[in-house]
Design goal:
The structure is a single chain. It is built from 1 helix and 4 strands; from the N terminus they run ββββα. The radius of gyration is 14 Å and the shape is elongated. About 15% of the residues are buried. With about 80 residues, it is an alpha+beta fold. The longest helix is centred in the last third of the chain and has 15 residues.
Length: about 80
């Protein structure tokens, strides 16, 4: 999955493209209340896990954690 980030650095508009891979860490809980866990990998950097009730939500949380750990600001309402 690719994330496109826009940023202004020294008065210049920059476009940053990051490729984020996801490592499936499995799930827990009963069938009716599953919690999925994924870890984002950016290059050779393994980030903390993200969890969610759906795989999509878990990946979204893992990506947000990864971007924050790399110093990017992530808004709560960002949809992919």
């Amino acid at each position: 999955m690719f994330y496109i980030i826009t940023k202004i650095i020294s008065g210049q508009f920059c476009l940053i493209i990051l490729q984020i891979e996801f490592e499936d860490l499995g799930h827990s809980g009963p069938d009716h209340f599953r919690v999925y866990n994924f870890r984002a990998v950016v290059g050779d950097v393994y980030c903390d896990k993200g969890s969610g009730r759906t795989k999509k939500d878990a990946k979204r949380e893992a990506a947000a954690i990864a971007l924050r750990s790399l110093g990017y600001q992530v808004s709560a309402g960002t949809n992919t």
